[in-house]
Amino acid sequence: MTTRDEDGRRAGVTANSFTSLSLNPPLVLWCLDRDALSMPVFRAASHFAVNVLSAGQHYLSRQFATRADDKFADADCESGPGDVPLLRGALARFVCRNTRHVEAGDHVFVIGEVERFESFPGEPLVFHSGAYRVATRHPELDAR
């Protein structure tokens, strides 16, 4: 997840929860720890981006999951609508208008309305049971 505040400061995090919330209007939801250093930036931003990482971008997943002065160091980015940082090489990118925040325990649900979506060919980055994995087709299903 990436965004930019009104002063141009970029913020980004690796989220372990992201889901479609509604098709009409197109809404997505993800969760952020309420004590995250970037929480104030994500709360105030008009837009945010969801960058679905490709298999070769595991280093970005780690980089955005840790505290650092500049999480965007060595990240290949471009500016999208609302001036949100978009990560090049991602499999999919959603640009969302920041619409609502819902407190839930020690996290906040961040809800956004999808204003733009693009997808690219490649294999997804998968993190399961504490490790990065390779996604494969299920052997009992048609390989279409």
Which terms summarize this structure?
single chain, 144 residues, mainly beta, five-stranded antiparallel beta sheet, two-stranded antiparallel sheet, 2 helices, 11 strands, globular
Structure description:
The chain is mainly beta. 10% of the residues lie in helices and 44% in strands. It has helices spanning 39-44, 58-65; strands at 2-4, 10-12, 18-23, 26-33, 47-52, 77-79, 85-87, 92-104, 107-119, 126-128, 131-133. The strands form four sheets. The chain has a five-stranded antiparallel beta sheet with strand order 3-4-9-8-5. A hairpin with a 5-residue loop joins strand 1 (2-4) and strand 2. The longest helix has 8 residues, at 58-65. The two termini are 31 Å apart.
Percentage of residues in DSSP E strands: 35-45%
- Main beta-sheet annotation: 5 strands, antiparallel
The N- to C-terminal Cα distance equals: 31 Å
Shape: globular
Strand order of the largest sheet: 3-4-9-8-5
Query: What ranges have pLDDT less than 50 throughout 5 or more consecutive residues?
Result: none
Overall helicity: under 10%
SSE order:
EEEEHEHEEEEEE
Alpha-carbon Rg, integer: 15 Å
